[in-house]
């Protein structure tokens, strides 16, 4: 049998297809995984921003998770946009003790600047960071979580993404409790087509972990996938356009 790693994405739906569940499905599939989903919210979204959000009931999110894990099983999980503090706690309850790699992308604001998590939801993120084997904040998300000092005090593993920082070089830092930081650098790709980069990176890491790769190797390969997708962007949209997942081989 050709057994693909079973990857569950718990995230919001992006109607424009560039981020969220849609980006996760594309990434997981192209990297050889079997994609399953638990949708936390439905958004009306374009490359210009989010115009409407409908959050799912927490019980419905839990039922989706139960349906996937109870029948098909799971080898790794990616958590993205959650939509409410209640959903965040339900997700944590379902995943605690699951025993598979879990990657948490603490989505707070969309690429176009729309707020996707209120204060109560962000406050619930600490529980999920302890459940996850890796949290993937960007510059603003790391600051909102209290910065390096706060995450160090929590004793959680995270990669501080540098794509939103100024400069011609992108610097990503992997912080594991009790270890020296591991750093990756790369020339910045000058493009406006960056919609869904965080979703793509986290779901790619989860897929590689589900295939059995060590954490650092999974991050390195996921970064390569994101960069290839940025270079292959089809040019759609008037704002922060989608990447070219489809063209990466």
Automatic annotation (TrEMBL):
E.C. numbers: 2.7.1.49
Alphabetical GO biological process terms: thiamine biosynthetic process; thiamine diphosphate biosynthetic process
InterPro entries cross-referenced by the UniProt entry: HMP/HMP-P_kinase_dom, PM/HMP-P_kinase-1, Ribokinase-like
Highest taxon of source: Bacteria
Gene Ontology CC terms, in alphabetical order: cytosol
All copies of domain Pyridoxamine kinase/Phosphomethylpyrimidine kinase, residue ranges: 14-243
Biological pathway: Cofactor biosynthesis; thiamine diphosphate biosynthesis
Protein name: hydroxymethylpyrimidine kinase
GO molecular function, one term: hydroxymethylpyrimidine kinase activity
Protein's UniProt keywords contain Lyase: no
Keyword vocabulary terms for this entry: Kinase, Transferase
NCBIfam families: HMP-P_kinase
